[in-house]
């Protein structure tokens, strides 16, 4: 005869121990943790590792190690070496590592300029990078004023409706911009958002020509922003610096006057990253 289990007994003790015990606790996925541990094994000086060796090092079954390796290989993070049958980190992982290093350098190069720009403008300052067709805010200095804006660190937003996003899109190679826009519908955030790809392309040409971008009521009603590009040593635009604040007049002139200090601070950060100043004069008239 089967006896009914007490309430709550359907969970094993081990699983209960991993369950969140209160607010702010997040359950860890063991499969993801093992995948992360497996990838870290390639940082110990051995460029190639077999499934059996990985299983031994991680203390898991060979079948489990094989599933993890197979999944990572399918996702492009590992690649199999045909001559040995072992695995190594893929080019994608090398690119990710380079990106992480570049981002770290970006934070270090931007810190003083971000503080300076907030002091000059008395507005909220953002440092952003592009991910697909989204802007990701990686640094932020809040305005000392009473108005608090969206855009916490890690926040994402559609690139086509922000000044920093327009900057990052404007300086993409044309074929890369075409690829990212293909089959995509531009979301309308407000009545002022650009949703036509033809209009967006025209706007991006203007941004590229003058070297800075603006958004007035396009991402959020009542707010505007002005952004400028940050370049790496090769001259490629890798990030954008922007100032954002409330719209006091519908034409956006209240923030447009910050186009020069934003651009000058972006050049300052670019120099710290190793880019040579081209001595370009910033045109701030409409």
Considering the chains and any ligands shown, give keywords for the structure:
two-stranded antiparallel ribbon; disordered N terminus; 10 helices; elongated; six-stranded antiparallel sheet; single chain; alpha+beta; 17% strand; Beta-Lactamase; 286 residues; 41% helix; Arc Repressor Mutant, subunit A; disordered C terminus
Domains, number: 2
Q: Which CATH architecture of the largest domain is right? A: 2-Layer Sandwich
Residue share in helix: 40-55%
Level-1 CATH class name of the largest domain: Alpha Beta
Q: What is the average per-residue confidence, as pLDDT, rounded to a whole number?
A: 82
Taking the alpha carbons of the first and last residues, their distance comes to 84 Å
Rg estimate, integer Å? 24 Å
Morphology call: elongated
List the helices and strands and how they pair.
Layout: H1 13-18, H2 30-40, H3 51-58, H4 62-74, E1 78-80, E2 87-89, H5 91-121, E3 124-131, E4 134-141, E5 156-158, H6 163-170, H7 174-181, H8 197-210, E6 213-216, E7 223-231, E8 237-246, H9 253-256, H10 259-272
Antiparallel strand pairs: 1-2, 3-4, 3-8, 4-5, 6-7, 7-8
